[in-house]
Amino acid sequence: MPQYEYLILGGGMTADAAVHGIREVDRTSEIGVIAAEPHAPYARPPLSKALWKGAKPESVQLGTADLGVELHLGRNALELDTRGRRVTDDQRTTYAYGKLLLANGGTPRRLPFGDSIIYFRTVDDYQRLRSLADQKRRFAVIGGGFIGSEVAAALAMNQRQVTMVFPDAGIGSRIFPLDLAEFLNSYYREKGVEVLAGEHVAAVEARGVETAVITQSGRELMVDGVVAGLGIEPNVALAKAAGLRVGAGVVVDESLRTNDPHVFAAGDVAEFFNPALGKWMRVEHEDNANTMGRMAGRSMAGQAVRYDHLPSFYSDLFDLGYEAVGELDSRAEVVADWKERFREGVVYYLHDGRVRGALLWNVWGKVDAVRELIAKPGPFRSEDLKGLF
Ligand SMILES: Cc1cc2nc3c(=O)[nH]c(=O)nc-3n(C[C@H](O)[C@H](O)[C@H](O)COP(=O)(O)OP(=O)(O)OC[C@H]3O[C@@H](n4cnc5c(N)ncnc54)[C@H](O)[C@@H]3O)c2cc1C
Question: Would the CB of 47 count as within 6 Å of ligand 1?
Fold first, then answer.
């Protein structure tokens, strides 16, 4: 039976960061990684950005194996026995651990329309879409959030014909104020994307080599490929079955330990308390995966850590880009401070006079300054914020 002082379940960015964290403290003990995908850990953000702008496929590799780790790829962990400190995978291999990290992320939400839709998450999804886009022309993208907006832009920048379909009023409208989300609809249209906002998909049907996407209002789009970005569900089933505490994700304390002292969790799967916002959070972003993963590794290796980091995130939409920190909820009170409307500026999200989050729209290098602002009690009025950055 393979035995590891440190066993990591999941082979994503959090797993890679955790290996780095462990190795910063413990250079010699055995580390094992069980990963369902057949690939060593790689960076996901370039799959919907840089790889469509000429970056080489191998640039996504994180090089985890160089840190003296045994990677068990293409294996799905099925059982966790916290009493015996064992994990069993789908090939009936059982692994013993001293400390375990749950870094098993999330699974894309699906629609009940068969297998012709690419639920874009992995490098295999990228390769499937890329080879289709190399041969074919017409694509439908379902969803107007992070993945939908990035994939639509990537395809359009590669001269593909793209129709976006999503139920909200505008692109990114769960986090952007309505005027900005509506601006994005027209910006995407200017770039040649057909944007069907406020529209639901009623059916997706394979018709020979083509696919029909039928909307609730009766439009029928004939396309060569369909991609969906509908968010993810955290992979909590294993933790739940093992009796670990699960809320919106696998619940961890500030040292990133679950309610079992030998089991830790980090990244997209984990729920943690953020002191600056005073709330429990589960975050699906790179900065959280990297920072939390690294700290979880250090914590597993015996170093005292306190995860009080407020994660940031970013995205690129054609030639627009942003960074953001904190809670971005378009239903909150919003103060927009544009230097140039919808091109450069900062949008603040407030609750009871406190800044809860900020969107730095084509404004760079201000993430830490915003974190300091969020930590301040306020109260802030609109005139206190205008011109700050
Ligand atoms: C296309 C794309 C673009 C993105 N762009 C951005 C961006 O621009 N900015 C940003 O901040 N964030 C972005 N993100 C989000 C960011 O990449 C994720 O937050 C991060 O990758 C999460 O890492 P993770 O390791 O926690 O989880 P995951 O990436 O989900 O990795 C978990 C891994 O565990 C494996 N696994 C699951 N269950 C098991 C099991 N039972 N046994 C073995 N293995 C298992 C999965 O197969 C998976 O490989 C993007 C994500 C995607 C998909």
Answer: yes
Model confidence pLDDT, tens digit, residues 125-144: 999 999 999 999 999 999 99
Residue 321: pLDDT band with limits 50, 70, 90: very high
What is the CATH number assigned to the segment(s) 110-228?
3.50.50.60
Separation between Cα atoms, residue 166 and residue 172, nearest integer Å: 10
The residues spanned by each domain of the chain are 3-107+232-300, 110-228, 319-385
The CB of 234 under 6 Å from ligand 1? The reply is no
Adjacency order of strands within the sheet including 270-274: 250-251, 270-274, 279-281
3-107+232-300 matches 110-228 in fold: yes
| Superfamily name with CATH number, domain 319-385 | FAD/NAD-linked reductase, C-terminal dimerisation domain (3.30.390.30)
Structure tokens at 212: 């029909």
The class of domain 3-107+232-300 in CATH terms is alpha beta
Q: What is the average pLDDT score of the chain?
A: 97
Note the pTM of the prediction, 2 decimals. Answer: 0.97
Q: Is the CB of 313 under 6 A from ligand 1?
A: yes
Please identify which residue in the block is written with the tokens 């959280």.
288
Report which of 375, 377, 372 is spatially closest to residue 388, judged by C-alpha positions. Answer: 372
Ligand 1 center–CA 89 separation, angstroms: 20
The answer to whether the CB of 121 is under 6 A from ligand 1 is yes
3-state secondary structure of 379: coil
Residues 351/332, Cβ–Cβ less than 8 Å:
yes
Q: Using CB atoms within 10 Å of the CB of residue 3, give its burial: 0 to 12 exposed, 13 to 18 middle, 19+ buried.
A: middle
Q: Which amino acid is at 169?
A: A
CA–centroid distance, 79 to ligand 1, in Å, is 21
CB 69 within 8 A of CB 28: no
Three-state secondary structure string covering 285-335: CHHHHHHHHHHHHHHHCCCCCCCCCCCEEEEEECCEEEEEEECCCCCCEEE
**3-state secondary structure at position 265:** strand
